[in-house]
Each structure stands twice: as C-alpha cells, then as structure tokens.
Amino acid sequence: GATETTGNTLAWVISELMHNPHTMAKAQHEVRDVLGEGRSVITNSDLGELHYMPMILKEALRLHPPGPLIPRMAREDCTVMGYDIPKGTNVYINIFAISRDPRYWINPEEFMPERFENNNVNYKGTYFEFIPFGAGRRQCPGIQFSSSITEMALANLLYHFDWMLPDGANLASFDMSEKFGFAVSKKYDLKLRAIPHVWSNAMTLK
Ligand code: HEM
C-alpha cells in the first residue's frame, strides 16, 4: 500500500517525462536552475522552491492512479444515477475513469502538468474529479509522506542525471501499458540509461 504505490508513481512519472521530452527539459531546467550548481543530495527542505515538480506529480497521478478502484460499502439503501443500491452492496469508485473523463478534463489523455497551473486542485479529496488518494474519512493518510518522498526522489534523479532510452529502443516503441492489480504498475519494467549531468559554463556563470 505504501511502497508499491510510491514506487509505481515514480516509474510512471519518469516514463511520462521520457515520452514528453519538452516536459522533461522544463522539469530539469527548473530543478537545476532553482537549486543551482554543486548540490549533492536534494532534500525535503529544498522542495518548497520547486513549483513545476508538484504539477508533474499531480499529472502522473491523474493519468496513472496507483489504486484505480476505491472500495466502499453502501451503509443504507440508496439510488445513484437511477441504480438501486441495497444496503451492504460493495461499490467500487473508478478513479482511473474519473481522472480521464473528458467532461472534467481538457484533452484527458495528454500528459499536461500545466493544467494544474493557476488552480487550487489538490489531493484533499474535495475535487472529486481528482482523487488519486481517495476521499472522505478513509482517505489515504500517506499523502504528505508519499508526495515528499516522490518529489525528493524525482528532484534528485532530474538534477543529477540526463536520461536516455537504452540502445536499440526508441520513443515510438516505448511501452506505456499497465499491469492491472491492487496497485497498477507498468506492464514492463522501465529501463533507462542514466547519464551523469555535466554543468556547462553557461549554467555555471548564471
Ligand atoms: C503515491 C502514493 C499513494 C497513493 C496514490 C495512495 C492511494 C491510496 C488510496 C486511493 C487509498 C484508499 C483511500 C480511500 O478509500 O478513500 C489509500 C489508503 C491508504 N493508504 Fe495510501 N497511497 C499512497 C501512499 C501511501 C503511503 C506512503 C502510506 C503510508 C506511509 C499509505 C497508507 C495508506 C493507508 C494506511 C490507507 C488506508 C486508510 C484507511 O482505510 O483508513 N499510502 N491510499
């Protein structure tokens, strides 16, 4: 529930960034530009300075919610959208479908972190079109913890390395399919080459 969700999220974020090189470049530029040259490990206290990174994470969680179906049980007989649901019925809320519903999202299949710019959509479970951590009294208690961990890991990966597809692979064949389970992971492991980032003079002199 904690490690798989967080690990899968990181794999999805990096996969989406590989798929969207402009977004990767923008994210790397932010983390390197804002934090400056010569840092060793990026820590939790650095994260407040990064504004694009949380949007990337939100967008990855919108498209790839690690827990796509939230279980609930009807506490009383009720009718929802014309369907009679007797007390005690197990109900699954399909976060995956809601997060890609064109009634709530413009170009829902596109990875577009900027859609979270200039709005207050957050993880608190009050924006029902975006509930990757669930909603209500059983909402995930690990939101803050997992956001910090994912952002810290991501910031370090983007700051210190440039990322390339392995030899013989290309973006057209880059696999984005899902393996369905309690926590949705990538069907095939993400394999990339990490190239340690070398600072150019232009950035050093900034
Ligand atoms: C990206 C990371 C994570 C995602 C997307 C996620 C998502 C979720 C979701 C959708 C639920 C069900 C919420 C509901 O029923 O309304 C849940 C429950 C829960 N999560 Fe997470 N989670 C993440 C990370 C974590 C972490 C890091 C921890 C602990 C350190 C954690 C602990 C829990 C616990 C204990 C519950 C059960 C809460 C309850 O039933 O009262 N989660 N999570």
Structure, explained:
Keywords: Heme, Iron, Membrane, Metal-binding, Monooxygenase, Oxidoreductase, Signal, Transmembrane, Transmembrane helix. InterPro entries: CYP450_71D, Cyt_P450, Cyt_P450_CS, Cyt_P450_E_grp-I, Cyt_P450_sf. This protein has 206 residues and is α+β, with helices and mostly antiparallel strands. Helix content is 34%, strand content 14%. The chain is built from 6 helices and 8 strands; from the N terminus they run αααββββααββββα. The strands form 4 sheets. The chain has a two-stranded antiparallel ribbon. Helix 1 packs across helix 5. The longest helix has 18 residues, at 143-160. The structure holds protoporphyrin IX containing FE (HEM).
Concise account of the structure shown:
Its cofactor is heme. With 206 residues, the chain is an alpha+beta fold.
- Number of helical segments? 6
Strand order across the largest sheet: 1-4
Order of helices and strands: HHHEEEEHHEEEEH
Based on secondary structure, the structural category is alpha+beta
Number of strands: 8
User: What bound compounds does this protein have?
Assistant: protoporphyrin IX containing FE
Mean of residue pLDDT values: 92
Low-confidence stretches: none
Note the overall shape.
elongated
Kindly estimate the percentage of residues that lie in beta strands according to DSSP: 5-15%
In this structure, how is the largest beta sheet organized?
A: 2 strands, antiparallel
CA-to-CA gap between the ends?
A: 43 Å
Protein name: Cytochrome P450
GO molecular function: heme binding; iron ion binding; monooxygenase activity; oxidoreductase activity, acting on paired donors, with incorporation or reduction of molecular oxygen
Keywords: Heme, Iron, Membrane, Metal-binding, Monooxygenase, Oxidoreductase, Signal, Transmembrane, Transmembrane helix
Cofactor: heme
